[in-house]
Amino acid sequence: MSPQTETKASVGFKAGVKDYKLTYYTPEYETKDTDILAAFRVTPQPGV
């Protein structure tokens, strides 16, 4: 049997559910002229 190794992950890469404000929410963010808005349409497919 091979020896076990321990892997350390940073806060942003640990498995599990993270609080939204921990990684995405930035209340003081101000939009810039160079910001890009992307929109995607997702169409459900039967059996998927």
Can you describe this structure?
- There is one protein chain.
- This protein has 48 residues and is largely without helices or strands.
- The chain has one helix at 20-23.
Query: Counting H and I runs of at least 4 residues, what is the number of helices?
Result: 1
The stretches of 5 or more residues where confidence is low (pLDDT under 50) are none
Assembly classification: single chain
Care to count the β-strands?
0
Elements, N to C (H/E): H
- Strand % is under 5%
- Distance between the terminal alpha carbons, to the nearest Å? 40 Å
Helical residues, percent? under 10%
Shape: flat
Main β sheet profile: none
- Roughly what is the average pLDDT, rounded to an integer? 78
Class from secondary-structure proportions:
little secondary structure
Radius of gyration, in Å, reads 19 Å
Keywords:
little secondary structure; 48 residues
In short:
The protein is largely without helices or strands and 48 residues long. Helices cover 8% and strands 0% of the residues.
